[in-house]
Amino acid sequence: MNKLYAFSIYVILILFLILYFTLSFHSRLAGDDFYYLWLKNTYGSWDGMLYQYKQWSGRWSAHFVGCKLISLWNNPFFLPALNFLSLGLLYFSLKSGLEKIIIALKISLDKFLIPVFTLLLITTFFFVSYSIGETWFWYIIILTYLWSIIAFILLLSLSLSPENNILTYILIVLCASFIGGASESYALIFLFVL
Q1: Is residue 88 within 8 Å of 115, Cβ to Cβ?
Q2: How far apart are CA 172 and CA 161, in angstroms?
Q3: How many other CB atoms are found less than 10 A from the CB of residue 9?
Q4: What's the pTM?
Q5: Rg (Cα) of the chain, in Å, rounded?
Q6: What DSSP state is assigned to residue 183?
Q7: Do 60 and 68 form a contact (C-beta atoms < 8 A)?
Q8: Among 13, 21, 105, 138, fewest CB within 10 Å belongs to which?
C-alpha cells in the first residue's frame, strides 16, 4: 500500500510539473507587463518606478523589478524562465518554512518527505484556486502577488530560524520591504498574520 501511495504522489507531481512546463511556454505578457514595457522604454527602470509611485501606486518594488525584467521580453525563453524562477522561489521558501516548523514542533519526519510535501503544497496552491481564471491571474501577475507570498513565507522562515545573524536580519528587512512595496493589500494581511 505504501508503494502505491508513493507512486500515486509521484505521478501527481510529475503531471503537475508537465502542466506547469507546458503552461510556462504558452503564457503571455499580461496588461501590467505591457505597462512595465512602456515605463521601461519611456523612463527607464528607476524613473519608471518613481513615475508609477508618484502617479497612483505604492507598488514601487514590484514596478522596479517588473521594469528590470521586462527588458528581456524579446527573448523567447523569458516567460518560461520567469515562471520557473517563481516556481523555484516558491519551492525554496515553502521547503525552508516547512523545515523550520518541523524543527520548532519537534516532529520526527524523514528528510526525503519534506521536498515531496513542499511540491504537494505547491500543486495544491496552484489547483485549489477560486476558479481557473483566478489560477491564471495568480500565474501571470507574479511580481505583485505571488512574489509577495513567497517573500512572506521566506520572512516567516527567517524569523523562525534559531541562528540569527546580520544576514538573516538583512534578508528579513528586504523581504518586508518587497512585500510592502509590491502589494499594499497583502502587506496589510501579512501584518495582521504577524
Answers
A1: no
A2: 11
A3: 16
A4: 0.78
A5: 18
A6: -
A7: no
A8: 105
